[in-house]
Amino acid sequence: MTMTHMKREIAEIPEATARLFDQSGTALAEAGAALGALDPAFLTTVARGSSDHAAAFLKYAVELGAGLPVASLGPSIASIYGAKLKLAKSASISISQSGKSPDIVTMAKAVRDGGALTIAITNTAGSPLAEASHHAIDIRAGAEKSVAATKTFVASAVAGLAIFGQWTGDKQLLAALRDLPEHFSRAIDCDWMGVAAALETHSSLFILGRGPSAAIANEAALKFKETSGLHAEAYSAAEVMHGPMALVGKGFPVLALAARDRSEASMAEAADALAGKGAAVFITSDKAKNATALPFAATGHPLTDPLALIVSFYSFVEAFARHRGLNPDEPRHLRKVTETL
Q1: Is 88 helix (H, G, I), strand (E, B) or coil?
Q2: Which of 119, 163, 180, 256 could form a disulfide with 208, with the two C-beta atoms 3.0–4.6 Å apart?
């Protein structure tokens, strides 16, 4: 079979990451410096879909690393309801690949009018979102021809971490970001097709995360549904132990995205508990006793580790879609750019 656009774009993730720093380094530094000068009391984010998952990932990074609360704003607050927000002494990050969805642009303008310092992360230079913001980061990932966002999701998340690293002066994080292309190359080669056998007899999948990897689990569940024609649900490894546990039976497939951070032990514990109830559990850790270990590309930093996991997942889900006889470039009822009000 001819290489899919999705597979080709996954292969471009390392290069796109390196290009982001080479060509957008000044803009990233300027946005970080602006945040440092403001010293915001809190942050907000504006995004939808995969971009919102990147924003949720940044929320964890900022709350863990800077101790500032981060809130996700519903775009319809401005685009439908016309509400005014009081956002003095705050900053806001809007993320959109196209930078032109009307609701995202309207919300970004409202946030700026409300007194916030605004930063846009887009893959389209000169987009309406970029024009509406104080600072605009062009992630320069190149055009994506597959419907599913892959390299643009990763580049957006990396750009957000780079801004955060510049803002806080975190040299260790900035160095880890520079090393990501090498780690992403290894992540692409991680073989997770062992999960496919568990999905032969089930039409649903639980994907677990904790902390930053919880945002990654949300992105993985979306991509699984988009490309594979099967249901997936993302849960916190703590949350799944409540109501969702009732759905877990013999052979029920569970993918636990464990990163090398302080949550890894609890992720392994949850994975083993689910395996003990008969679930077919796969985990990106060597700390579990009963769950099946999957290969992973460790990055050496707790905030970059989850990004390597989504790269491995993208590689898996592209292969799994083809395994099911589907074209991941053409999911049903989806378009590359979705514009909502």
Answers
A1: coil
A2: 256
In the chain, list all ranges with CATH 3.40.50.10490: 5-178, 187-323
Q: Are 140 and 23 in contact (CB under 8 A)?
A: yes
Give pLDDT, residue 147. 76
* Cα of 106 vs its chain's centroid, Å: 23
Cα 75 from Cα 106, distance rounded (Å): 8
How many angstroms separate the Cα of 239 from the Cα of each of 210, 289, 305, 308, 310?
Answer: 10, 21, 22, 23, 21
In the structure encoding, which two tokens stand for residue 221, read together?
């569940």
pLDDT value for 248: 67
Q: Which CATH architecture has domain 5-178?
A: 3-Layer(aba) Sandwich (3.40)
Token pair for 155 = 């580049």
Q: Is the pLDDT of residue 336 over 60?
A: no
Query: How far is the C-alpha of 183 from the C-alpha of 169, rounded, in Å?
Result: 23
State the average pLDDT over residues 211-229: 96
269 to each of 138, 205, 266, 273, how far by Cα in Å? 40, 19, 5, 6
pLDDT of amino acid 334: 61
* Domain 187-323: CATH architecture, name and number where available: 3-Layer(aba) Sandwich (3.40)
Query: Helices marked H in the chain — which ranges?
Result: 5-11, 13-38, 49-66, 76-79, 102-113, 128-131, 151-168, 171-178, 180-188, 194-198, 212-228, 264-276, 305-323
* Both tokens assigned to 218: 């949300």
pTM of the model: 0.95
Backbone angles phi, psi at 67, to 5 degrees: 70, 20
What's the pLDDT score for residue 132? 96
Q: What is the reported pLDDT for 4?
A: 94
Identify the bridge partners of residue 233 per DSSP, sorted by sequence position. 206
Say which residue, 260 or 147, is predicted with more confidence. 260
Report whether 30 contacts 140 (CB < 8 A). no
